[in-house]
Amino acid sequence: MTSSGTPVVPGIGTGPVVVTSERVEAPADEVHVDHDTTVAAVAAASEVVADRLTARAAHASGAAAEVLQATAAMARDRGLATFVAKHADASGPATAMTAAVAELATMFEAAGGLMAERVTDLLDVRDRVVAEVLGLPEPGVPSPDVPSVLFADDLAPADTAGLDAERITAIAIRLGGATSHTAIIARQLGIPCVVGVRDLPLDGSAGTALVDGTTGEVLIDPDAADAERRAAEDAERRAASAAWTGPGATRDGHAVQVLANVQDAAGAVRAAAEPVEGFGLYRTELSFLDRSSEPTVDEQAEIYRAVLDAAGPHKVVVRTLDAGSDKPLAFADMGSEPNPALGVRGLRIAIERPELLDHQLDAIAAAAAQSSADVWVMAPMVAVVSEAVDVAARIRQRGLTAGVMIETPSAALHADRLLQHVDFVSIGTNDLSQYTFAADRMASSLSHLTDPWQPALLTLVASVAAAGERAGKPVGVCGEAAADPLLACVLVGLGVTSLSCAASAVRSVGAMLATVTLEQCRAAASAALDADDPADGRARVRAILT
Ligand code: PEP
Ligand code: MG
Prior knowledge:
546 residues, 3 domains, alpha/beta, phosphoenolpyruvate-protein phosphotransferase activity, 16 strands, binds magnesium ion, Glucose Oxidase, domain 1, metal-binding
């Protein structure tokens, strides 16, 4: 039997199937002693859960360690304890915890954006605490003795972060989207991963499986010899990725800058250790998610300078604050909006608060003056030409190279006009697909629409790349699309001049590009544009490039 989903981390994993354990429910007849006993039991269990997560964080690194620490902090959260206390008058500990989390989850969901995303962590904390108060083993991922494939309905980020890539060869999950935390962490751990596999058998009926994180296929009980052959070919590809040293180019020497996406100095230092020619997207807003007031220009300059320094003499594309929607910044809050993703976010904040943009540009210019990096600056969420004209003037006044992101269909349609006013453009495929398909990028149930292989999305990319060629100006891609080695070749065939992706994906993208010619990339691009849907596109392109 073959199932399929959205591939998010390339590579092949095979082995016996393990399924995440069922969640434990609070028993209907749970004993209630009194308020204080319930509160104390939940507090003690929460502490044990938090300690375990913190211990695991100590053995993890990067995004995985951050997720484990954040989940531990949620288990210790005072606010959560207050909600438990509200339910402790009449309920035992497991029931009070369940009721408290249900109430909080509803509030988080109503808040939307990043808060809504944290619901998965909240439910994960609930399940761990409930198991602990009932004296049952911690729920979640089993630790198999032999390398195995993990099947799950959904996977809490903390579970994904704790995975051992030696034991879990691949992940297939029924829910989840390409931009979910699970996908991001699986990518960091280098574990092949497919999400949104609707008919994934979770009842223990699957004996062995092969998960192909490049095609999205999940083969249940595959032919053993065939699985072995595919796994061996994949191992060869991985070895080639590990050996890739850059710079980015096709086999016949067509240069394509391969760059990393970064968000802070520590990540920038890690990314600079990869064979990259710089950073194609520095998401500045992520440094300020917990700030209640605007950081001073000096403070900002120091933060930016640390990232620029990590790049050495290379290019760094600094993105101005992309606040709002799923990344709210308290100091750039424009009040509640019925549709935050369609509201005042990104560059639009400068309409009412131009000083925020000016201060940030002053800080970037100050950092650039003290660094040897080649600093480019771009604005997110540009929709019309006048916005590009305005922001380009402000950037150039400070002696910096000016660009805009192409994240809205209107910007893609008018790329020719935008390019008359800026030095470069960079396509943010995550948002461009969200706005092209009217499909929330956070909604796992819509991940088939926000799949970057959608031919309509690629048609927009093609038209922007063609505009770049006409203007003789660079066109980059810095969304998740650039992290997929096969799709990266398609983007190059469409005329894209640089690819910026997670540092962990850089080598597989660079190594794949080095095996194909520009002509093959162009053939792959036209096949992907002609495809009926993402699966058809992947199959056609694989046939041309591999
Ligand atoms: C994008 O939208 O593709 C992008 C790169 O920006 P972000 O993911 O930060 O919105
Ligand atoms: Mg974006």
